[in-house]
Amino acid sequence: MLRASGIEWDLRKVDHYECYDEFDWEVQWQKEGDSLARYLVRIGEMTESVKIIQQALEGIPGGPYENLEIRCFDRESDPERNDFENRFISKKPSPTFELTNKNFMRE
Q1: In this predicted structure, what is the pLDDT of residue 87?
Q2: DSSP-assigned states of every residue in 1-19
Q3: DSSP per-residue letters across 78-107
Q4: Closest CA relative to residue 20, chosen from 61, 64, 53, 68
Q5: CA 2, CA 8: separation in Å to the nearest integer?
Q6: What's the distance, Cα to Cα, between the start and end of the chain in Å?
Q7: pLDDT tier at 66 (50, 70, 90 boundaries)?
Q8: Domain layout of the chain by residue ranges
Q9: How far apart are CA 74 and CA 76, in angstroms?
Q10: Could you write out the DSSP letters of every residue in 33-61?
Q11: Which of 26, 60, 63, 100 has a 20 to 30 Å separation from 52 between CA atoms?
């Protein structure tokens, strides 16, 4: 609301929050104070966020890495456990689930 009302203020700039000082970005603000101004500020914030992310990605040092996600796919699946009949055996109704005698089907 502040930045859509002509006040160019952002905690990340004022308080030197985290590592935002290391990136080149501008505080987005509008002076009109209406819904369109809030919308334009938000669109500008998203654009600045993309610029910050791009700068952060460029700053990541290169080097060897290990793909930890591939370990999830190395396991062998148990075909008996994944059988259609076994998928629903352990499903139990909720203890508070009750059906009334009302007819729910309309003719």
Answers
A1: 56
A2: --GGGT----HHHHTT-TT
A3: -TTTTSHHHHSTT----TT----S------
A4: 53
A5: 8
A6: 55
A7: confident
A8: 3-58
A9: 7
A10: -SHHHHHHHHHHHHHHHHHHHHHHHHTS-
A11: 63
* Paired tokens of 34: 């209406």
Tokens of 82: 């994944």
Q: Which two tokens stand for residue 68?
A: 């930890």
Write down the pTM of the prediction.
0.57
- Over 90: is that where the pLDDT of 86 sits? no
HSE-up of 19 (CA within 13 Å, CB side)?
7
Residues 6 or more apart whose CB falls under 8 angstroms from that of 20 comprise: 12, 13, 52
Q: Which amino acid, one-letter code, is at 52?
A: I
CB 35 within 8 A of CB 59: no
Site of tokens 């689930």 = 97
